[in-house]
Design goal:
The protein is globular, with a radius of gyration of 28 Å. The longest helix is centred in the last third of the chain and has 37 residues, at about 320-355. The protein is an all-alpha fold. The protein contains 17 helices and 2 strands. It folds into 2 domains: about 5-145, no CATH class; about 150-429, no CATH class. The protein is about 80% helix and about 0% strand. The chain has a two-stranded antiparallel ribbon with strand order 1-2.
Length: about 425
């Protein structure tokens, strides 16, 4: 007899018992690491709580689940009594605030049975992973919590409002005059760009606050390669150690621009365009990384001191920034529709070159979402041209703001990427 021939109910019960046992083991390890006594919530207790929740859910059979809710109420009373008992213990009162954790884990163990019987396996695994990580990584979580200031809570609330409140309320109907671009599609692009930029912002501001110059270029490229270029070039002008690695960091920020833009295109569902861009973006990314490696080696020979460039990006989840992105998205879509209708592919390529001297993200995403009156090859070419002309802008910033001859190879390569992009766009169309 193999496992597949066992009754499904037996397999579900076994899974509930095993998962409850694992929770108990992890809670026991957590307490040992905190030098706490055994207390409530031993491995045996949690295993029995999980099995009891499974049986009560099964015996109820259907709503309103009176037996299961009665068991939950009894467990809640038990946990409340235990917490009250702990409150009289000086150690619990003056501890580190972890007295509620065993109660939370007990409630989770009680819910495992219904989860196993009603929910997909990936959700059960996700719940267990989160619970285990919250216990196993307490020092790291505490360190991260202490490093994040209170204002970031407000920032996170803004993001939840952008993604969880505004997005569901927007209709999936076309914007007047732009038949293929809906309100929901515009805001989805806002949410995705904001999320990726915010990840780079958090990493640079809190996870790597004292990052070296190269890491600053990498993380700055995730946020905004243009902003990173401006900051690095300015600091290279006044700090010789930063100047040694700034050319490589600027190139690295541009490499991250290609990776970031390609990922965004995939996540927004433009898979055909992403496949067409995979080869040129891949070659440009690889070439830029090779230039970065060469410049980094040269910079190390010039200065062995690890300098730390300071990049303080603007929070990308500020509501004005989100509304500005949405406005640019719609404006670029309207301009692109006018240009492609009246001037065709040639007009689109000229527009792409000009847009590269501004923020290319809303233009690229509106271009891919709009299905304008040009072929897909011309649209992909326009994306390449916009990214290439944006690199030309960064080359100008790098030279003008740094006033360093060492920045010349980086600026030359960035200008060359425009020529490569123009050639590829002409060849592809």
């Amino acid at each position: 007899m193999n496992a597949l021939s066992l009754p499904p109910l037996l397999l579900q019960f076994a899974a509930t018992v095993v998962l409850s046992f694992v929770l108990g083991l992890e809670l026991h390890s957590y307490r040992r690491a905190q030098d706490e006594g055994i207390g409530f919530g031993t491995t045996r207790t949690l295993t029995l709580i999980g099995a009891g929740g499974f049986l009560l859910w099964l015996l109820d059979g259907a709503a309103p689940r009176g037996l299961y809710l009665a068991g939950l109420a009894a467990l809640a009373v038990w946990l409340a009594v235990d917490l009250a008992k702990q409150g009289s213990d000086a150690r619990a009162v003056h501890g580190d605030g972890g007295a509620l954790l065993p109660s939370v884990i007990a409630l989770l163990a009680y819910a495992l049975g219904p989860l196993v019987m009603t929910q997909p396996y990936w959700l059960i695994a996700a719940v267990l992973i989160v619970a285990i990580l919250m216990m196993a990584e307490k020092p790291l979580i505490r360190k991260f919590s202490d490093a994040i200031p209170m204002r970031e809570g407000t920032t996170l609330a803004e993001f939840l409002m952008l993604a969880g409140l505004v997005l569901p309320l927007l209709p999936n109907t076309p914007i007047p005059g732009l038949m293929d671009i809906t309100y929901a599609k515009v805001w989805m692009a806002v949410v995705l760009i904001s999320a990726i930029s915010y990840a780079g912002y958090l990493a640079r501001t809190y996870v790597f606050p004292r990052a070296g110059t190269l890491l600053t270029g990498l993380l700055g490229g995730v946020y905004s390669s243009t902003a990173a270029t401006v900051v690095l070039a300015r600091q290279a002008r006044t700090d010789a150690d930063i100047a040694a690695q700034a050319p490589a960091a600027v190139a690295l920020a541009t490499a991250m621009m290609y990776a970031r833009l390609w990922v965004v295109i995939i996540l927004l569902g433009h898979l055909p365009a992403a496949l067409r861009l995979a080869l040129p973006f891949g070659l440009l990314f690889a070439g830029t990384m090779a230039v970065t490696a060469w410049l980094s080696g040269r910079g190390k020979r010039q200065s062995s001191h690890v300098a730390k460039a300071t990049l303080v990006p603007r929070n990308p989840l500020d509501l004005p920034v989100a509304f500005l992105f949405a406005g640019l998205f719609v404006a670029f879509a309207a301009i692109t529709k006018f240009v492609t209708t009246d001037f065709g592919a040639t007009g689109l390529h000229v527009l792409s070159f000009l847009v590269g001297f501004s923020d290319i993200d809303p233009f690229v995403l509106s271009l891919l979402a709009g299905h304008f009156h040009v072929g897909e090859a011309n649209i992909v070419g326009a994306v390449l041209i916009a990214s290439g002309s944006n690199n030309l802008l960064k080359a100008g910033y790098a030279l003008a703001l740094s006033r360093q001859r060492a920045m010349l190879p980086t600026a030359s390569w960035l200008a060359m990427t425009l020529l490569i992009s123009l050639a590829w766009a002409r060849y592809a169309s």
